[in-house]
Structure formats: structure tokens, C-alpha cells
């Protein structure tokens, strides 16, 4: 699903922030991505969802080499990846329902065809009472769950989440983790970037650990 070979990344003329990364994300796998602050987790996620090209090495996403990918094929590949951003990126001038439905609207689907599924998904993440609320009035944990619902709504094959439990209490963090585990059981590959060791200890999953720009994989 994702293949990295000897990947390096530097910003401008700075030092390499990622070095010699070789690993695979398998279909329907579940893994944590961890490492100290500044180790490069967000940079690696940006490479995975095609927001960034590597400075060297091979990145293949769904079998396609991203360095030779024609620009017109990028949106189609991106649609197969759901992303939960660290800062949520919800649009305040829309309701929570409209935010979550946005990927389907952008894909050209008719509202009548998705209203029921978006409403059900919002219920699943515990926001059934907040459909019409602006994200501005949601709590941090509610925003996080809205961002998760938006990442899931188009049924991605791969879900990437950057610190998805960073703003919530331990109880809600466990609930969010259960959502991801359920998603994984339904066939989606999941990568969760986190610092939270207690959270990682709750699931027996592969750990991708970044340290000094290099990646170590613990099965
Ligand atoms: N756009 C950029 N331009 C220049 N340097 C950058 C840029 N983005 C990240 N960096 C640098 O790359 C390194 C890795 O940053 P990154 O945000 O990927 O780490 P992280 O592991 O996600 O950190 P955190 O856990 O604190 O969010 C840092 O030294 C950071 O300063």
C-alpha cells in the first residue's frame, strides 16, 4: 500500500530531518508512529499523504512512484487516504455536518445520497447531537472527533492520524483508539502518530519509532 526505500527529506538547505527510511505499510495493517518531539513524525505523515516529495529515495503510494506521478493523478490517490490533522482544520463557517460531508460533496456526490451515512457516522463518533453546531462551539475533543469523522467519511483505504488524542482526557483517548481499532477491523490500514506511551500500550500493534531522523520498526 505504501513503500518507502532509502527515503531522505530535508527542508531547504537544512540537515536531513528524515534519513534512509525503508519500510512498508501493508493493506489492513495497524501501526503507531512515535518518537520524540521534532523527530519528524509530521514530516513523515506529509510524505505519506503526498503533501511533500522526498529529497531522495523511492516513495510508492498504492503502487505508484510519487516522483513520476502525473499531477492529474494526485487527487485520485489522495482520495484513497484519510487524514486527521493535528490542528483539525475544520471550517468554522460550516456546520459540523457540512464539514464532515465536505469530501463527499467535493467528490461530486448528491446530498440525498449521503445524508443518512454522514448522520450515522456522526452518531458513531458521539456527535449525533451536534450536527448543526459550528465547529467554533465544539470542545477540543468534539472537534477531534469531527475531524476523525471527516477523515473516515469517504471510506479511505489508509487512515493517517497526527496526534489524534492530543487534546482529550485519557478516557476519551481510549474511546478514540477503539474507533480506530474498529476501523482497522473493517479493513482500513491505520497509522497513528502519537507520543502517548500509555495509549500505545493498550493495543498490541507494530511501532514505527523515529529517532534522529531514522526509523526503527518494532513488530
Ligand atoms: N516546513 C518546514 N521547514 C523547515 N523545517 C521544518 C519544516 N517542517 C518541519 N521542519 C523541521 O523538521 C523537523 C521535524 O519536524 P516534524 O514536525 O516533522 O516533527 P514531529 O516529530 O512531528 O514533532 P512534534 O511531535 O513536536 O509535532 C524539526 O526539526 C522541524 O523544525
TrEMBL record:
InterPro entries: AAA+_ATPase, ABC_transporter-like_ATP-bd, ABC_transporter-like_CS, ABC_transpr_LolD-like, Cell_div_FtsE, MacB-like_ATP-bd, P-loop_NTPase. Pfam families: ABC_tran. It is a peripheral membrane protein. It is found in: Cell inner membrane; Cell membrane. One of its GO terms (biological process) is cell division. It comes from the Bacteria. Signal peptide: none annotated. Residues 2-219 form the ABC transporter domain. Keywords: ATP-binding, Cell cycle, Cell division, Cell membrane, Membrane, Nucleotide-binding, Transport. GO terms for molecular function: ATP binding. Belongs to the ABC transporter superfamily. Homodimer. Forms a membrane-associated complex with FtsX. Part of the ABC transporter FtsEX involved in cellular division. Important for assembly or stability of the septal ring. NCBIfam families: FtsE. This is Cell division ATP-binding protein FtsE. It comes from Chelatococcus sambhunathii.
